[in-house]
Amino acid sequence: MGRLWEETLFGCASDIPSCLLTCLLPGGICIIQATTVNNLTHNGKIFPYILVCCLGCIGGAINRETIRNRLEIDGSFVSSCRTWCLYPLCAACQEYREVKRYSNHDS
């Protein structure tokens, strides 16, 4: 059994810079998610960037699964798809904050 997300889906106000980057910059959602996945896996930004830019919510859900599995967070691919289809900007920000929290806690 894993754990729950420590960062809430609608907690964008706790990290204004990532929220602004994601919401206001064209392609910002692709940039923030590629950076998030790379910060966690250290496998590069190109593949996660292409996934979310070319496949939209499905690509975002695939990247979210990578994050969930690495951090041992409960959930399923279906829940990741639902989150990315309904709230893509919030999902990208939540993932960024979660990985940032994990990285700070791990240091």
Structural features, described:
The longest helix has 19 residues, at 88-106. Helix 2 runs parallel beside helix 4 (57-71) and helix 4 crosses helix 5 (77-86). This protein has helices at residues 16-24, 28-41, 46-55, 57-71, 77-86, 88-106. The mean pLDDT is 93. The two termini are 24 Å apart. 35% of the residues are buried. The chain is an all-alpha fold and 107 residues long.
What ranges have pLDDT less than 50 throughout 5 or more consecutive residues? none
Structural class label: mainly alpha
Total strands: the figure is 0
Number of helices: 6
Distance between the termini: 24 Å
| String of helices and strands | HHHHHH
Largest sheet composition: none
Gross morphology is globular
Query: What is the strand content?
Result: under 5%
Task: Specify Rg, calculated over alpha carbons.
Answer: 12 Å
Helical amount among residues, as a percent range?
over 70%
Mean pLDDT, all residues: 93
Number of discrete domains: 1
InterPro entries: PLAC_motif_containing
Protein name: PLAC8 family protein
Organism: Stentor coeruleus
